[in-house]
Amino acid sequence: MRDSPTSPLPLAVSRFAAPTEAGGDNDDHDDADNMLTDSAVPADAVPTTPASPQDPMETEPALPVPPRTLPTRARVIGTDPYQSTPIIFAGDLSDIDAILPASPGLEVLAQTIHRWHIDDWKTMRTTKKAYSPIFEFSGTKWRILIFPNGNNSDSLAVFLDSVDAAAQPKDSNWHVCISFAIAISNPDDPSVFKHLVANHRYNPYEVDWGFNHLIKLSALSIPIPGNSKSFVEDENRTVISVFMKHIKDETGVLWHNFVNYDSKKVTGFVGLKNQGATCYMNSLLQSLYFVNYFRAATFNIPTENDEPTKSIPLALQRVFYQLQFSDQSVGTTELTKSFGWDTIDSFMQHDVQEFNRVLQDNLESKMKGTKAEGAISRLFVGKYKSYIKCINVPYESSRIEDFYDIQLNVKGFKNLEESFVDYVSVETLDGENKYMAGEGYGLQAARKGVIFTKFPPVLHLQLKRFEYDMERDAMVKINDRYEFPTEIDLARFLDNSSEQKSFPQKYLLHGVLVHAGDLSGGHYCAFLRSEKNGKWFKFDDDRVTPVSQRDAMEENFGADPAVKTKMIKRFTNAYMLVYVREADADEILKPITGDDIPVHLRTRFEEERLATEQKRKDREEQHLYLAVKYFTNANIRVHDGFDLCNFDNKDLPLSPSTTVRVKKDERLSAFKDHLAETLGVAKGKVKVWSIMQRQNRTSRVDKQITEDDKTLEQIRDYYKGSSEVLRIYVDTDDELDNDADTILVFIKHYDPRTGKIRFAGKWFFSPTQRLEDALPTIMDIAALQGQNVQLYEEVKPGMIELCDLSKTFMSAELGTGDILCIQHTLVPEDLRALTDPRTSSVVNYFEDYRNRLPVVFKHKIKEKETALPDFELVLSKKMVYDTVVSKLGATVKWDPEKIQLSSPQGTYAKTVIKRSSALTLQEMTNPGYYAPANGQPTVLFFELLDIPLSELEIKRYVNVTYVDRSQHEHGPYKLLVAKSGKVADLLALLIPLLSVVPGGSGQFRLFEVSHYRTFKVYSDTDYVSVLTDYNTLYVEEVPVEEINKAEGDLVIEVAHFNKEPSRGHGVPFRFVLKPGEAFAQTKRRLVASIGATDKDAGKLKFFVVSNFSKPKPIEDDDVLWDVFPKVHVNEYLGIDHIDRSGKSAKGAGVGGIKIL
Fold it and tell me: Which H, E and C letters describe 783-797, residue by residue?
């Protein structure tokens, strides 16, 4: 009988799980998924012998499990009135293998059936919960826990409870893995029952497991359909049965929840942290790490003088070192930064094969000239021969090529052996498909194929799980079952002439790289061995777990469509295999010790480790410390703004201050002694004052702290105000006369002649003293003489008030911590002598200070221009554009009329700021142009122009790249053209700048490229104003062959890509096809037109590419003129080859890889 359809799906949970939830712990391991089965058998089914009512407890003996074939478990026999789902037949209550089927690959150590006969159900319903008597199974004690009225729900809740688990210490590794089912049945007719199945790892933290929703309480006493019996007979009797299998924990982590899991402690290895979408990279890096010969070669790349943030070898050395010696998972941020990647790159999945090739190319170039040179080739590079051999004449055409990996077809093949046979299969060219042989043999029957001439010690096999589906017109993932062995002999796939024929070619499986998901995304992990024929481990980002050989292999073969399986397993399969030649395994997998690592690396990385460890320790002990921020008179003297210092207002320059970490329980007296030692003054001279943030957002000295016996935590809690940091003013000046009634006032002196302000000193005044009586003292402190002085109170930013000298300090509302500013009053003659009239008053000074804006200027350089270093200018927000560039021009010694400003985006210039006589600096740095992130410096870019900005406003710069006849790029060239000009004017400016090789047509054209395809070809009469800024513009010399093409010749587009047309690169070009010309001849013209070397030409593959079908390979005897339509809008000739420029396109959900 099933639950009501409105109830949650009954999953196995701990009794402590929220009863309204559908499940308990969401384990991320595959084997812990709960199997759900609920059953009821009709009255005519063969019943088992009922238990004796005099024996309420019944436990069948635990016996070895004989091998058996499980019965068929599913047939529909009726419906449940509480749910529309059919009732399922599942055998009877004495058949443990029918109730609790064996899990593939798991060994059962013991099994039993235990029954709890309940004869007092009505009484039990009066309690919240009840336990069965304790019973023993497989050396441990158990009991059944039942919630007769539901565990805060309307369903019967039943759990299997481990008595021994609850008695273990929490830090104990004690555990037992139990596969179990719990059933409720009629006491007289055991064919009427319902059960659920679960797996659980019992441990001191999870002592019970079971079901919050075994069956609706309202359904217990209602007869099931087709039977007069109910689960509870006479409303008082029922039976709870538990079916248990003790499962051997082969790996030690079966059904583990991985809470507080320590990879290093369990496996001896650590994982790699995922930056967002770098699991593909992590799996590959781990596989390379466990090729010890490669790791040793990487360590031997000289990096002593490398810049840490830009050196790929050094970053990879750091990752490998930490993987070997760290106790925690290892980060890869430094490595990806050394690639030149930004955050976006780290959140984009890339093609693993391409990433591997680009990484190894980079390392191989860095290994040249070192003791590691050639290591990658020796490890990973093999050779194969492509050949066409005539059958009837002695002629053969062949070429030898290197390979770093082998791509094997998966679709249509059952296993690795079949794919290798397919790879070297021979095609017979006969009939209309005969081969045009050289040396005058003409058309001949021939055999065409590929054969290996050399296998590398480490073999990377790429399984082609992603293919183009013509029916869907899209790339799809092949999830078919595909088997691979633990060892394979590849000798029969070698050419008979190969030198390797003389020694064994037996390979051992060393690694399985796995993808779970589909084309649009998924997750990568790796199953690897650390030594020859060693144990298997799963490397899943930062978690490493021991696994069985079945987990590493069979679980990653892929899905068999004929076998029902979980959805996730249907999309989880191997995509790359790593095999190591058995004869070389001892050398390649030789253990690496610390002594094998260069001393400079050990020293560097050990220092980094100690620094990291200290930071970690500081974080852990942070709760024992508090932060004290203090400033002294010396700090005040260099502060020229509001208040005595600026702690927080990042719109203005922050004041120098000192922050120290101090133990919370340290006494103030001890802290003052430490301050005296730090400041170099005698003990007893240090006086500490609290700082208070007033309601007007000013920070002022408030009270002297004299409680020397108090701890700093007590003082912080009393004086901190709204801040968690204890802020204090430390005074080490000689003691001033004062008493309890005096107030401490700070004095600043403003000099209108220089426009500068300085801290003059401080004094204790009586609150009842008049300001005019205190003026002589204030002037002495400020070192001023004369009568013409003014006294201002610095109330707050924007409020600098002239003081009424006739008032007392009290009536003027002056108290401790207040600040007075004194200045000379200038006579008219002095005012006329000022360079800037605004400096005449301290009021103007603070008004200008409020509008201060420190701006960091960055040089936006042109091609071949040396960048000026960044610099900072303190300007006013009210400055207009012309004033800003005037200040800027004076600094860089450039005509202000020839300076253009731009706002930034990240580290690059983004939008040109349009010049306006009314545009202020504040408007330039506000939204609409640019708003810096909180706490970040304000940045503007500037460009030094060759012409005045006023002239530039009627012209525009156009960036074009010249592509020569060998498809080499030159430039880009930045050309200044009138906005009203035409493309012919642009070409006229460009051509004199080019080094054009003689012999061409002398005619040039401009074309636009988008996504590595020609978007538009411009005519000479097109206006410059229609040219876009978001696509790339190229200029090429029109080929002579195109100008002189004969009638009937066809001009097509040619474009470059890597493996898939969506992964374009390079510059497309136009090419002439001739009627009747075989592609063998066309190819020679093509190769010549792109300037490819013979070596590179052999690696090129050619396809006819259409937007509506799968790319079609081109054979040497194809006539392309017949293939291409006369109007070739959607078709082009594609050249497939690796892009080494780092400019690959990003398509099909996979990013082109750049490693700079």
Answer: CCCCCCEEEEEEEEC
Check 279, 390, 525, 821 and give the catalytic one: 279
Residue 182 near residue 194 (C-beta atoms within 8 A): no
> pLDDT at position 66, please?
38
Q: What is the dihedral of CA 902, 906, 907, 909, to 10 degrees?
A: -20
Residue identified by tokens 């929220």 is 18
Per DSSP bridges, beta strands 819-824 and 743-751 are: parallel
Q: What is the mean pLDDT of residues 1052-1063?
A: 85
* C-alpha 1069, offset from chain centre: 37
In DSSP terms, 577 is beta-bridged to 461, 512
Average pLDDT over residues 1116-1127: 77
pLDDT surpasses 50 at 135: yes
Give the tens place of pLDDT for each residue, 646-693: 887 776 777 888 999 999 999 999 999 999 999 999 988 999 999 988
* β-pairing verdict for 625-632 and 726-731: parallel
Per-residue pLDDT tens over the stretch 578-606:
999 999 999 999 999 888 999 999 999 99
What pLDDT band is residue 1012 in, cutting at 50, 70 and 90? confident
Q: Tell the residue number behind the tokens 């103030």, with chain if given.
A: 668
What local confidence, expressed as pLDDT, does residue 471 receive? 64
Sole residue written with tokens 């050639």: 374
- What's the token pair of residue 212? 């919050």
β 506-518/938-944 pair status: unpaired
When the pLDDT of each residue in the chain is averaged and rounded to a whole number, the result is 83
In degrees and rounded to multiples of 5, residue 844 shows phi and psi of: -65, -40
For residues 1077 and 1014, what is the distance between their CA atoms, to the nearest angstrom? 25
Give the C-alpha distances (Å, rounded to integers) separating 1143 from 169, 275, 840, 1067. 58, 22, 59, 11
CA-to-CA distance for 820 and 388, rounded, in angstroms? 98
Query: How large is the angle between the packed helices 279-289 and 292-299, nearest 10 degrees?
Result: 90
Q: Is 569 left (phi over 0), alpha (psi -120 to 50) or beta?
A: alpha
Q: Could you count the other beta carbons within 10 Å of the beta carbon of residue 20? A: 9
Structure tokens at 691: 């700082």
Residue-wise burial string across 672-687, b where 16 or more C-beta atoms lie within 10 A, e elsewhere: beebbeeeeeeeeebb
| pLDDT tens per residue, range 867-902 | 899 999 988 888 899 989 999 999 999 999 999 999
- Supply 151's token pair: 């565990």
Structure tokens at 298: 């990487």
Q: Are 42 and 78 in contact (CB under 8 A)?
A: yes
For 25, 646, 694, 776, 876, the CA distances from 813, given in Å and listed in that order, are 65, 23, 14, 20, 32
Dihedral sign, Cα of residue 943, residue 944, residue 950, residue 956: negative
- Cβ count near 332 (within 10 Å): 23
Report the distance separating Cα 224 and Cα 193, nearest Å: 10
Place of tokens 């978001």: 1030
pLDDT tens digit string along 515-555? Answer: 988 877 788 999 999 999 899 999 999 999 999 999 999 99
Residues 6+ apart with CB under 8 A from 227: 40, 42, 43, 189, 192
Predicted pLDDT at 1005: 93
Q: Is the pLDDT of residue 912 over 90?
A: no
CA distances from 1140 to 27, 264, 354, 362, 540 (A): 43, 38, 11, 10, 30
Region of residue 980 (phi > 0: left; psi between -120 and 50: alpha; otherwise: beta): alpha
Question: 279 catalytic, yes or no?
Answer: yes
What whole-number distance in Å separates Cα of residue 988 and Cα of residue 397? 49
DSSP class of residue 284 equals H
Q: Which residues make Cβ contacts (< 8 Å) with residue 986, sequence separation at least 6? A: 958, 960, 975, 977, 1006, 1024
Annotated catalytic residue 195:
no
Contact 872, 856 (CB under 8 A): yes
- Catalytic option among 195, 213, 460, 523: 523
* pTM for this model (two decimals): 0.61
